[in-house]
Every structure is written in C-alpha cells, then in structure tokens.
Amino acid sequence: MSVKKILLTSETHPLTWWLNDNKGVIWIEEYKKKGGYLAFKKAIETIEPSKIIDIIKCSGLKGRGGAGFSTGVKWSLMSQNNSSSMRYLLCNADEMEPGTYKDKFLIERIPHQLLEGILISSLALRVRKSYIFLRYEYVNAERILIRAINEAKKHGYIGNNVLRSGLDFEIILHSGAGRYICGEETALINSLEGKRANPRFKPPFPALVGVWGKPTCVNNVETLSNVPSIILHGVEWYKSLSKSVDSGTKIMGFSGKVKNPGLWELPFGTTAREILEDYAGGMHDGLTLKAWQPGGASTDFLTSEHIDVPMDFFSVQNAGSRLGTALAMAIDNNANMVSLVRNIEEFFSRESCGWCTPCRDGLPWIVSILRSLERKQGRKHDIETLEQLCHQLGPGKTFCAHAPGAVAPLKSAIKYFRMEFECGVELSSVIDVKLIENVSSYNEILDKVEYDNKFKSKYD
Amino acid sequence: MLKEKFHNIFMLSNEEKKAILKEKNNYEDSRASSIEALKIVQKNRGWVSKQAIYAISKILEMSASDLEEVATFYSQIFRRPVGRNVIRYCDSVVCYMHGCENIRACLENKLNIVIGETTRDFRFTLLPICCLGNCDKAPTLMINDNIYSRLTLKTVVELLELYQ
Ligand code: SF4
Ligand code: FES
After folding, report:
1. Which helix (H) or strand (E) holds B124?
2. Which strands sit side by side in the sheet containing A216-220, from one edge to the other?
3. What is the pLDDT of residue A84?
4. How far is CA A53 from the centre of its chain?
C-alpha cells in the first residue's frame, strides 16, 4: 500500500502541525511551547475587535460545519448590533452527521486550538461568555475539554482580567442529550435554552436574536480552530495555502471500504481521487469504486466519474453535490444502493424533529417504500412516488434543511442507479429469486435484469 | 412496575440538588439547565421517572409538562428503567457498510431481546445510535461510556462478558 506521507509543518498545516506521532492530546504546556495562545495575546494587545473581523473577512474563511458561509460576514452581522449588553458565541460541537468525525478529532487531539479560537472570536465579537455545545456521546472529548478549560483558566486565558486587559472571558461546556437536529444552528439555540430542539424561523437571525433573545454567533469547531493561525500568520499566508478559490486548508478524508480510512488536513482543491488513492490507499483489494458521498450522509451521491473533482465548495457543487463536511465516504461495487439509501433514510426519518408534516410523515414513507423495494416487493409506481417525495421534501418545502438534506442521497441514487431501484419492482416477476441469492456481486444481478428486461420488452 | 412504586416516594438527594443548582449558575435562565438536571438524575438512578420530573421541575422553577416535553424529545434521556449496561450500537451508514446489521442480529440473538428492549435480568439494554464519529474504525458501538471499534462478531460476544 503506497500511502502518501504528509509532512506536517506550521507553514502548510495550520490545524494539525502541532500533533505528535504518539496520537496523544496536546495539553497546554506543549501547545504554548509551540506558540499556542500567541495569536490571542497578539489580538488582545494589538488588534481592534473590528479589525479582527476585517482580517477574518479578508482571509476568506468559510464555515466548516457544512454550509460554507463566509465567517467574516457572519461575524460582521453580529458586530453591527451593539444594543444589548450580553451577547454569546456558541461553538457547535454537536457533530452527528453520519460519516463525519473531524470535530471530534480536533477536540480530542488539540483542544486548546479551539479554545484559543473561541477566545479570539469572543474578542472580535465583544462576547464575554461562550458555550461549547458538545454532543452527548462524545464522552472522551468531554473529559478532554473539561481539563483543557481548567488548564486555560489556570494559565489566565479564561477568567477575570485576562492578560491584564480588563476583560473577562468565560467558556462553558454544555453537553446535549442526543438528536441530530440539535446541530442545526437555531435548533442548537433552542436546545441550549433547555427546549425541544425544533429549528426557529429565520429572520430574525441569531446574530440579532439568538440565545435568550441576545445576539448570538454560532460557529463550528473547525471554523473556530482556524482563527488563531489566521491572526498569527496573516491573510495572504492563509490564502496561499489553498489550491482553489476557497482559502486555507480543510480536514478531509475517506471512510468506507478503503484500505486506510482516515482524515487529513489538505489544501482546498485537492482532488477526491488524490485523497482516495494517495491517502486512503484506494479501495480494498477486489473492490472498485461505485459511488461516493463527498461530505456526509446528507450530500448527493457522485459516481466514480466524478472522482477527479477538486474538493472545494464550488467544484463539488458543480459536480452535482455539496462539499458538506468534506469527510467523504466510498461505496464499493458490491453495495446495493437501495439498501444503502434505506439505511440513510432510516437515519433521517428517526432524527426528524417532527415539526413539519412533509418531513415527519414523508421520511417514514420513503423508508417503507425502500424497504419493500429491498425485499423485491415494490409496486409498479414506487419509483415515481419516491421521486415525488423527493420533490415534496426538497429545498423550500419544509421548515429547515433536514428534509432536503435527507432526500439528496435518494434523489441522486435514483438518478445514477435507477436500475437497482427498478430491480425491486420487477425482479420477482422477471428472474428467479433463488438465483439472486447465489450471485456474488450486485452487478451480476443488474446484468441479468438488464438482459431479462430487454428480453421481456420484446414479448410484451 | 415495582420500580414505579418505589419511585412514588421520590426525593432528590442532596448531592443531586447541589449538582443541579450548580448547573443553574451557568445559564441566564434556569430552564437551560433542565437537560443537565435530567442527566444528573439519570446518572444516579439509571432513568428518569415521572416523580423525578416533578421533583426536578420544582427546583428549576418550570412546569412539569415543559420538562416532560424536553425529557421525551431527547433520545438519551430514558423514561423507563434500563439495564445496568446500555449498549448503543452505531447503525449509521459507514458502520452499515461494515456489517453493523450482523452485529445487531448477533446482539439480539445473544441477549434474546430486540432493539429497544432490556434483558429480563436488567443486565443489558440495546439501543441504536447515530454515527459515533468513529467511522474510520467501523463498525463500532458504545457500552455505557466506553467505545469499541473494529468489531467482529467474535469480539462483540467477548465484550458482553466484561459487563455484569
Ligand atoms: S424539516 Fe424536519 S427537522 Fe426540519 S423542522 Fe421540519 S420536521 Fe423538523
Ligand atoms: S457511521 Fe458508525 S461511527 Fe460513523
């Protein structure tokens, strides 16, 4: 297996160069020895809050939670509102997207980078109290964050009169109690307030009316982790890291039946093929790539034809999907798309917050159709019904992006692998089921069905 | 049912009260500590009974039905007694590709229960969970606070022995 070794240096890997080979946590001593908290010191002593926002805006940093909105612009929405004394920064660490594990990695390996990012952002946004909303099941990350916050307190970065600036900073760790929808910005706010995590109507945007009605900025863990190095090394440096129009680096990776699943910090614009082949070691022996999702379960499938797409927001969208979390998943030729999509839809159906009817009732309907297709007991117009449901749950039809995210994989799977769905409808009448159980690869069935379909139409 | 009766004389312990009041200080509004409060009680008693809901709602100065609404929404708050050990197996898509359904079947078979149920001796409860962020080491599951990855049917069976 020829896997590319990456040389982690501070010039090229702002997020990960601090890490050790021994996979341990970088605690405060080591972090400081390597220059940690210098950016915060620089920011608090020499840079005006509004200037920090300008720097982040110019750097082109985009939100790493999936939507890719400009962080600087988001921040500037906040700063215009000075009417309220309290304002909050909410770090979204409610990572639950299937196939995604970057925030967990950053918190568990280098928690102080996140804390420093939060502190600098708090400074810029004139926030004095921030919350980290951590998902319940990340127990290890929780232990690490608790210790890191205590360390930062002891070293005087959190608390009263930080670095003799006269400013007080507080960071509070809040852990959730399950439910994927909490990761949605406004649902996150509801959940923090101790309510059901139903998304809120926008506008007003959280920047104006957020946690307890106060201006609130919600940023993802990876986004905030980028802030210290931008402040320390500057805008031009940050932009130069990238191979594409999106600035900086991104934690990217591949999971699935690849030889070396994992994540790496890579420049934007690295192609998916490069990640899959050079870093993830390619597919397991004997398997070929059939489809892949660029960034989590809510992104549209792409096929092996798209594997040369550069991983950045625009290029992936151009190819017909979304960059999402950029943690891609490879699907091999033996996988049955109907079953795979059924699994994904079950997840979304279970995690719907239930607020609006199309999502609450539509997703279980999709699951039940997929189940019958999977059993080869589909009815004649099932695929058309699925297509209609994709439309009815699509963008703009429901209260939040959960439903459109849920149907994206389904819609794209029908688009690229319609034949497999058709198998579920027609197979029982076309070929002997016993025969299916004996075939080794799903493609064999397809070949068979294709043949039989042709045969059948002749005599219809 | 026996448990339910026992909880009729429910009272929050001093430690629980203290822990909940401490949590309250973290937020502008006491309601925000409701999830943490439910978890504190659950940690001690395994689950959150109706009586516990009343007791917590009083100390948080919110209505019991509001608290009930929260308690029933979140998947990690248990409203029924669960086993001493809670197995959460990841059934999200990467683990699915790595055979998590076989692992579920194996667990169901071995424990003689289906997903969502508790064994008669209250040793195990089996629940599904979404992606544990361990996809590079799939398939994976969590027993209480411990995460196990790269599971095989054999290791799953061995794992159960560690939990009494
Ligand atoms: S789309 Fe689904 S998750 Fe979003 S608000 Fe509606 S029911 Fe809730
Ligand atoms: S899909 Fe199971 S850990 Fe991510």
Report:
1. strand B124-129
2. A170-175, A129-134, A88-93, A216-220
3. 56
4. 24
Give residues with Cβ within 8 angstroms of A415, minimum separation 6: none
Nearest residue in chain B measured CA to CA from A344: B93
Enter the pTM of the model: 0.91
CB A222 within 8 Å of CB A95: no
- A:53-112 residues touching chain B, CB 8 A cutoff: 86, 95-101, 103-104
Packing angle, helices A102-109 and A111-125, rounded to 10 = 100
Inter-residue contact A436 to A442 (CB < 8 Å):
no
Among A37, A174, A185, smallest CA distance to A110 is for A37
Question: Each residue of A80-97: b (16+ CB within 10 Å) or e?
Answer: eeeeeeebbbbbbbbbbb
Inter-helix orientation angle A402-430/A337-351, to 10°: 140
Note whether ipTM > 0.90 here. yes
* Contact between B28 and A101 using a beta-carbon 8 Å cutoff: no
Q: What is the 3-state secondary structure (H, E, C) of A162-221?
A: HHHCCCCEEEEEEECCCCHHHHCHHHHHHHHCCCCCCCCCCCCCCCCCCHHHCCEEEEEH
Asked if the bond preceding A395 is cis, omega within 30° of 0, the reply is no
Q: Over the range A6-30, which residues count as b (16 or more CB within 10 Å of their CB) and which as e? A: eebeeebbbbbbbbeeeeebbebee
Q: Fill in the DSSP letter of residue A244.
A: S
Q: How many CA atoms lie within 13 A of A450 on its CB side?
A: 10
Q: Report residue A427's pLDDT band, with 50, 70 and 90 as the boundaries.
A: low
To test the contact with chain B by mutation, choose from A87, A255, A332 the residue with the greatest count of B C-beta atoms within 10 A, namely A255
* B140 ligand 2 Cβ < 6 A: yes
Q: What are the C-alpha distances in Å from A276 to residues A283, B32, B70? A: 8, 43, 42
A145/A142 Cα distance (integer angstroms): 5
pLDDT digits (tens, 9 = 90+) for A110-132: 999 999 999 999 999 999 999 99
Ligand 1 atom with the smallest distance to the CA of A199 is 5
Task: Find residue A329's DSSP bridge partners.
Answer: A255, A293
Q: Ramachandran region of residue A213, left (φ > 0), alpha (ψ -120 to 50) or beta?
A: left
Q: Which of residues 130 through 149 in chain B touch A, CB cutoff 8 A?
A: 130-138, 142, 145, 147
Residue A327 has pLDDT above 70, yes or no: yes
Q: What is the DSSP string of A80-93?
A: T--S-S--EEEEEE
Q: Give the nearest chain B residue to A329 (CA atoms).
A: B94
What distance in angstroms lies between residue A184's CA and the mean position of ligand 1's atoms? 10
